[in-house]
From TrEMBL:
Lineage: Bacteria, Pseudomonadati, Pseudomonadota, Alphaproteobacteria, Hyphomicrobiales
Pfam families: MlaC
Superkingdom in the source lineage: Bacteria
Xref: Gene3D superfamilies: Tgt2/MlaC
UniProt entry tagged with the keyword Signal: yes
Signal peptide: 1-32
Keywords noted in UniProt: Signal
Protein name in UniProt: ABC transporter substrate-binding protein
Organism: Kaustia mangrovi
Keyword Signal among UniProt keywords: yes
Length: 194
């Protein structure tokens, strides 16, 4: 497996697990425990969707729970200002579809048996939840979740698998594509529509 395909797989794995975030009530004393309980519950639903190879289940979780607009705009890097407001909604939809398609294509590699929560901490502007995906017959896969306050609750804004953060990896991929096409946003739209 080449480095690029390994990174793509890891990024795809992050995308698959990213959907496990959902808004949580904001309660400072119980914040970490609530985040852990919720990630455990919803994360296991994502793994079930992977075992079932259900793109519709995953996309529903993604749509409801991940902060797609923030992640998608971050993925544009310095090209963020080139995204016309009139096309942002289309871009967010294509980004969501892209992540969902990657999930389906890699579902057999991602369908672990359970998600075990290892701990959490409040970093001031986010809550970090550490976990491991358990598999039969292979090593657990470490997963770190980053939640941020949104509208009185929380949403997943990033996920790291084996040290690779989804949002940063997608930014690397998208900026590279845009660099190769002189910053032409239409090239990214074409890529996402494939």
């Amino acid at each position: 497996m080449t480095l690029l395909s390994r990174r793509h797989l890891i990024a795809c794995s992050c995308a698959a697990l990213m959907a496990a975030g959902l808004t949580l009530p904001h309660s400072l004393p119980a914040e970490a425990a609530s985040a852990e309980s919720f990630i455990s519950s919803v994360g296991n639903k994502v793994l079930a969707a992977a075992r079932a190879r259900s793109g519709s289940q995953f996309r529903s979780l993604l749509r409801q729970n991940a902060d797609i607009p923030s992640i998608a705009m971050f993925a544009l890097g310095n090209y963020r200002s080139k995204m016309p407001r009139s096309r942002q909604s289309e871009y967010f939809g294509l980004f969501e579809k892209y992540i969902s398609d990657v999930f389906v294509n890699n579902a057999t590699k991602l369908g672990g048996n359970a998600l075990d929560i290892k701990g959490s901490k409040n970093t001031g502007n986010s809550v970090i939840v550490t976990s491991q995906v358990q598999f039969s017959g292979r090593q657990p896969m470490p997963v770190i979740w980053r939640l941020r306050s949104r509208g009185g609750g929380y949403k997943i804004i990033d996920v790291s698998i084996e040290g690779v953060w989804l949002a940063i990896q997608q930014r690397t991929n998208f900026v590279s594509l845009l660099n190769q096409n002189n910053g032409n946003i239409d090239a990214l739209f074409s890529f996402l529509k494939k």
